[in-house]
Amino acid sequence: MLKTRTVFSAAVAVAAALVLSSCAGGSPAGTSASPTADASAAAFNDADVTFAQMMIPHHEQAVEMSDDLLAKDGIDQEIVDLATEIKAAQEPEIAQLNDWLTEWDAEDNSMSGMQGMGDGSDGMMSADDMMALQDAAATDAGRLFLEQMTVHHEGAVAMAQIEIDDGENTDAQAMAKTIVTTQTAEIAVMAELLATQ
């Protein structure tokens, strides 16, 4: 288990470094950034907009699932730690995604983005799935959270990969790469934890 957590921590560290390097992008003191670089960062296409519109409700549901789990007593500490990490990573990403939609003058049509979700596509949980997690006793809640979040993460990784392949905005693509790295690592951790439940 320690090895798995170490691999996960290393993956998160790499992802954080990638995000920092992509966001830092500053120019040396006394120089100005290249207009081409600025234009590249500001450029966006329909794939970027769709990524933001779809990932916002997706992340919001992951935060809700984490909150539901964290409200329960008697949950394995490693699962509690994982839920805390998921929430801490995804809440700032939700804010960033909303900022991009504002910058791009695009609607946050999360409700329309949710259409077709909750039926197993894109890893979204249905209302019944969410209720099952909310109602689960501590003995079952940890296992159910891991099972549901694994599916949820797999959907997020697939959505992020589409952004990497088709998106144009360099910052959005950097976030998508971070999502793929961190959530793939979390999927591996969840598999290890499920094996012990």
What keywords describe this structure?
single chain; 197 residues; mainly alpha; Ferritin; 8 helices; 78% helix; disordered N terminus
Topology diagram in text:
Blueprint lengths: L1 H23 L10 H8 L3 H25 L6 H27 L6 H5 L12 H9 L2 H29 L3 H27 L1
Structural notes for this entry:
With 197 residues, the chain is mostly helical. It has one domain (2-19, 44-196): Ferritin, core subunit, four-helix bundle (Ferritin). The protein is built from eight helices and no strands. Helix 1 runs antiparallel to helix 8 and helix 7 runs antiparallel to helix 8 (170-196). It is elongated.
Global shape = elongated
Strand content: under 5%
Largest sheet: none
**Mean pLDDT rating:** 82
CATH homologous superfamily heading: Ferritin, core subunit, four-helix bundle
Q: Work out the helicity level.
A: over 70%
Number of strands: 0
Summarize this entry quickly:
This protein has 197 residues and is mainly alpha-helical. The protein has eight helices and no strands. α3 (46-70) runs antiparallel to α4 (77-103).
